[in-house]
Amino acid sequence: MSDKKFYYVIGGEYTDANFTALRSGTSKLNGPYETRAEAEAQWKSLSQSSTSNVLERYDVVELSHTIDRRAMLAMGQAA
User: Fold this and answer.
1) Could you write out the DSSP letters of every residue in 60-78?
2) Radius of gyration of the chain (CA)
3) Distance CA 40, CA 22 (A)
4) Residue 37: is it exposed, middle or buried by C-beta count within 10 angstroms (0-12/13-18/19+)?
């Protein structure tokens, strides 16, 4: 088995400056991206486009998925 990492950009507009709860209907999930650099480029774009709203915030998160080599072979993606 091998670990495959994926990166996502998550966030939206929060209800207050404690950044503990997203305002309903504003959540955004972008990804998956195969490299952290791709995710960071999206994070930068979203963050720069929302500078007028101090309650809007985004983060890059990394998820590792364990992929069985046999499953990869079946999909034709063996490394």
Assistant:
1) EEEEEEEE-HHHHHHHT--
2) 16
3) 21
4) exposed
Residue corresponding to tokens 């034709």: 76
DSSP labels for 16-56? Answer: STT--SBPTT--EEEEEESSHHHHHHHHHHHHHHTTT-TTE
Instruction: Tell me which residue has tokens 């400056």.
Output: 17
- Strands 2-13 and 28-33, sheet pairing: antiparallel
* Each residue's pLDDT tens digit, 25-78: 999 999 989 999 999 999 999 999 988 999 999 999 998 776 566 665 665 554
